[in-house]
Amino acid sequence: MATNVDLTSFDYALKILYDEARVMTAVCAENPAYARMPKSTKFKERKHSFVMHYGSPARSATFAKAQANRYPSKGVECLLTRGHDYSIGRIDTETMLASEDDPDMMRRATEVEADMAMLALGNSLGRGVFGNGSGALGQINQSSLDTTTLTLKDPGDIVHFDKGQVLVFAADASSALRDSGKTLTVVSVNESAGTMVLSAKLNTVTALATLDSIFTEGDYVTAADRLLPNGFDAWIPATAPAAAETWLGSADRSVAPTKLAGHRHTSTTDPGLTTLEAIHLLSARIKRSGFSADTAYLGTDRFRKLIVELEGKAMFTKEVVPIKGMSGEIIAEVGFDAIVVHTGGAVVKCFPERNCPEDTLWVVRNDTWEFMSMGQAPRWVVKQTPVSDADQIEFRLAYWGNFKMKIGAANGRYDW
Description:
Blueprint: H1 7-17, H2 20-28, H3 32-36, E1 39-40, E2 48-55, H4 63-68, E3 74-80, E4 83-92, H5 93-98, H6 103-128, E5 138-139, E6 149-151, E7 166-170, E8 184-190, E9 195-198, E10 213-216, H7 232-235, E11 244-245, E12 251-252, H8 257-261, E13 263-266, H9 275-288, E14 295-298, H10 300-309, E15 315-324, E16 330-343, E17 346-352, E18 360-364, E19 369-373, E20 379-380, E21 385-386, E22 392-405, E23 412-415
Parallel strand pairs: 1-19, 13-23, 14-17
Antiparallel strand pairs: 2-3, 4-22, 5-10, 6-9, 7-8, 7-10, 8-9, 11-12, 14-18, 15-16, 16-17, 18-23, 19-22, 20-22, 21-22
Helix pairs in contact: 1-6, 2-6
């Protein structure tokens, strides 16, 4: 006897078709930095408190001096909150009812929307590893704004945009939204040119200017918002922290900006470096701080140039990354190709990362990072509900979590 497809059976079908292994594999497969980062799914507290240490207790070869000059170890308390992200799909009721006698039709009906929901959050998590929590997707780079065509400063950032995406703008990730958050919608995307056509001319947004930052509506609402997870660019900012940081619970990392916020070098402070030389420089600085880097992340074009720079001497390796489920068991595996670079006292695996800005190189120690989440990230929201103003059923994929850097001096960046 046939049974109608109701919300309960739809929920069950979604979880069977897209179990934990399939969701996590889809999210990790093309995002090596997120896939390789250690993870914890126990971030249940409202705020996660931890201490980053930057000073050891006093010592001396003379007992009396060691006692007289004693002082305790030093550290900064950090308070980390959860960022969050949502992707929502819908299936019309007619399609659901038409599949009541055909489980395969149910699979086909949910597959496209569910796949795209996973892709959206997978892209967001992968991009978030390298971001600062603001959700900035790129910058405008054109002198004339009397046009519907937007040109990006970094053409590679075009992969972060899709037709139908609703955008807002700000001078930077610390400023208020332009024109009280007026939106423009993406009409079409030209990946080859690094451009997109919008629903209205750029100059219809009051005070919009070249080099303004671009955000998806809802990711950045008020000045200096950090609603998404805080990635590399937050923990190791291009400019050393100079004061207490709100996103870290007012922790002041300026007291020891390298030990607490990583190494930073640029083409100005250390000019003329090739990609390989920059990897060696950062690895050496990290080694001098008492740690050994093991990973470098590069944009895909910079990785291509590194291969050329090595002049046929590149040593390739394949790293297989186990994906663990909520209970800690291995539920899947993904693999990534890397180039092995032997630096002074450290072996660094270099990975091409589509989410890494082309003008920034990151050299890190992988086990000093962790993605902390409330449950698996991402995960299906259990309840599927009817849409009040449409003949459709809505399902949701979401995550709640944040990135954590445990040791600043074990990580660094180089900007060209």
